[in-house]
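User: I'm putting together notes for a lab meeting next week and I want to include a structural view of one of the chains we've been expressing. I don't have a solved structure, so I'd like a prediction I can at least talk through. The sequence is below, exactly as it appears in our construct file.
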Amino acid sequence: MWIGTLFALAAGLMWGLVFVGPLLLADYPAVMLSFGRYLAFGLIALPLAWLDRAGLRQLTRADWVEAGKLSLVGNLVYYLCLASAIQRAGGPLPTMIIGTLPVVIAISSNLRDAKRDGKLPWLKLAPSLALIAAGISLVNQVELAHLRADPDADLGRYALGALLAVGAVACWTWYPIRNADWLRAHADRSPRTWATAQGIATLPMAALGFAGTWVVFAATDAPWAMPFGPRPGAYIGLMFAIGLFSSWLGTLCWNEASQRLPTTLVGQLIVFETLSALAYAYGLRGDWPQPSTLAGVALLVAGVVWALRVDPEPVAAEGHPN
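Assistant: Thanks for the context. Below is the predicted structure for the 322-residue chain, given as structure tokens.
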């Protein structure tokens, strides 16, 4: 349990970095950030695939199809929505919308995976969910007040950013549940191999998307210096850093956690990503969180600690008539 939790914490620290990229490269379109990140991830996965070639050979065609689906929805579409949201609404607001994932995933998996993982009793789970929801709500109120106080704020742009963040939530509600399905059904397989397989599956899609973006920019005479934009050194360096730490290493740590913990519980541990992203966003902003924000963070942590104390209860098998 605690080893799995530590892996989830490590994944959250890595994934928090993905919220930094759109802020550091605010002049880059979201498509460049999404396709660039996963193109880097795929290139990083190539030498790792050679080292892990024996494990990859064991994957069937159905496994590769599943890796492709996970990569498309949980990687490319998710980050396209998230990067677009951050560039339109800033860091904290989309971060806290993404912070609803622990609640959404916990409810979804408790309804869906009770027979496999055991059912977390709703009465015992309710305090944890309430604490997490209250923490997210508190931090959101602070950010909305900050938005209303800004005379230059474009409310329509922020609303679109919030909507895109909801789309990212939908993608990443689907991804961890489906990813856990495969990992739990293949407990004899290495989580490292599965992380590398997703990187390999991502590479052709990211390359095609990057090339398509290049063609569209050229056809529309977009004022954009392809292939790497106006700051190629910063762009390439950041894409490879996020590709290595957030995409491959973060996925590896998450896979390790997913094999050890019930999906309902591991879903709540995505809160570590939210906390990390908030810390990074406020660090870039050069500001210290308000007391209400810190109180919201404390509620989030309390909710996770409470969840760790809840043990799943086995679901009785249904009887069959004679």
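A couple of points you could mention at the meeting. Residues 318-322 have pLDDT under 50 and may be disordered. The longest helix spans residues 155-185.

User: Perfect, that's what I needed.
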